[in-house]
Amino acid sequence: MKVFPDDLLYSREHVWVRVDGDIATIGITDHAQEKLGEILSLDLPEADSYVEWNEPFGTIETAKGVVELISPVSGVVISVNEDITDDIGIVNSDPHDTGWMIIVEMEDLEELDDLLDVSGYQEFVIQEAEVD
Length: 132
Description:
Elements: E1 9-10, E2 15-20, E3 23-28, H1 30-36, E4 39-43, E5 50-51, E6 56-62, E7 65-70, E8 75-80, H2 82-86, H3 89-93, E9 102-106, H4 118-131
Antiparallel strand pairs: 1-2, 2-3, 3-9, 4-6, 5-8, 6-7, 8-9
């Protein structure tokens, strides 16, 4: 079984959130990057743009196609990871740490209640695999 960091929250769209007060660092899970395969390009929002809970905040292009990234929170993007635009492979090699995508100043902390903790996410991944 895969090991996911237990200090993160997870969405059912395979996006993780590291929460620090009202600041959310967001990226895709190791499970997501593995299913997607090699990432060819990434389209992320600009700093100072607004992302909305449960709405697309960007896209990932892989050999398998283009996938929308669904935001787990609403708020203003305060930082975009420039390192991954220079070296997209970081998202595949280190998705939970240096492969983060955006940092958002959250508007509504209650949106976090919809996210899964590590054990909930592991169960979700197992259930999803059984359906596939």
